[in-house]
Amino acid sequence: MKISCDREQLLQAFQTVAAVAPSRSPKPILQNVKLDVTPDGASLTATDLEVGIRHAVGGVDVQAPGSVVLPVTRFGSILRESADQTIHIESDGNGATIRGERSRFQLPAENPAEFPPVGGFEETSYYEVPARLLRELIRRTVFATDNESSRYALGGVKLEFDGEAITAVGTDGRRLAKMVGPLGKQGEPAAVQQNTIVPTRAMQLIERAIAPTDAEVQLAVRGSEFIVHSPRATISARLLEGRFPEWRKVFPERGVGQQIELAAGPTHAAVRQAAIVTSEESRGIDFTFGDGSLVLAGKAAEVGQSRVELPIGYDGPEITITLDPRFVIDFLKVLDSDKTFTLELKDGESAAVCSTDDGYGYVIMPLARDR
C-alpha cells in the first residue's frame, strides 16, 4: 500500500473516526483505525463492536492499493504535530512508514485481515432527511439523554418514522426534548420497530460525521442495527434495548396554561446570572412571571442570593415555578439567540413546556419550592 495525501483532510477524517475506537479493550486491535486504499480512493474505519464508522478521505493520490491498521494515539499525534501539507504513507503488511518533507516515522501494525469488518450502506430502500435537519434533531435532543441511569433505554435518542415525519426524543426522566422534521423515503423501507433507540454516543458521532454542506442523508434500520449514510461516511450502531417512556403523555394538552412569549438570548443571559449563587444543595431558581416582567431569584446558604429582572410581554396572573437552571440553560443553548419561544405554564407544580415554531418541544419538571 502506498499513498500521498493532504494532511489536513486526512486529519479531519481520522479525528472523526478515532472517536469510535475504545481507549481500552480486551481486543487490542480495536484501539486502531484501519486505512483501506483502493484504486478509487481511501477510507478509514473504526469500531468498538457496538458502533462502527467508515469515512472517505479526500485529497488522496493512490500509488498502490492495500490496507494498514494504524494506532489511534501515535498516528493521530503524527498528523496533528506535522506541519507538512502532504504526507506519504506506505505499508508492507508488517508496519507503516509515514513521511513528511523532513520527517519519517515507522510504526508497527497489526494484521489488517484481523480487523473486524465495518459494513457499508447497501440498502436500496431507505428513509431520507436533509443533513442540516438531522444535525439539528440530534443537537436539540441528545443533551437530554441519561447515560448514567439504570434505565438503559434513557441512554439514547428514540427515533420514530411516521409517514412523512421523523421524530427524535431524548429524556432523562426529569426533562424531555422532542423535535419533529420532514422525512422522505426511497422505495419501501422495512417497518421500523416501536423502540428504535440509538445510543447517545452514536448520535454524537453522526452529528460530527455529517457535514453542514451535505444535502441528503440516508437512514435505515437493519434488524437491531441503525445505519446512517452521508456522502462521506457510513455509521452503524446497535440499537438499545429497553422500554422507553411514553413521551406523548409527558406533553400536557396545549392551551390549558398561560402562554408566555420569551426571547432566547435575553432569557439565557438572565438565567445564567441568576444561577451564579446556586449550589448542589440548593440548585433551584424561582421563576416568577407577572406584571410585564420575569423575576428570577436564587438563594443558597453560604453562597448568597440573586435577583434578576427581565421585561417581558406578559400581563396575566402571577405564576411562580422553581426550575433547575441547568435544564433551562441546556434548552436555550441550542436555540439561536435571536429566536423566540413559547413557555406554557399551568401552575408552579405542573411541568413547564417550551416550544418553538420549527417543531421543537421541551418539557421540564419543576422542583419542590420548600427546598
Automatic annotation (TrEMBL):
CDD domains (alphabetical): beta_clamp
DNA polymerase III beta sliding clamp central domain location: 129-246
SMART domains: POL3Bc (SM00480)
Residue stretches making up the DNA polymerase III beta sliding clamp C-terminal domain: 249-367
Molecular-function annotations in GO: 3'-5' exonuclease activity; DNA binding; DNA-directed DNA polymerase activity
Domain spans labelled DNA polymerase III beta sliding clamp N-terminal: 1-116
Record text on subunit structure and interactions: Forms a ring-shaped head-to-tail homodimer around DNA.
NCBIfam families on file: dnan
UniProt protein name: Beta sliding clamp
Source species: Lacipirellula limnantheis
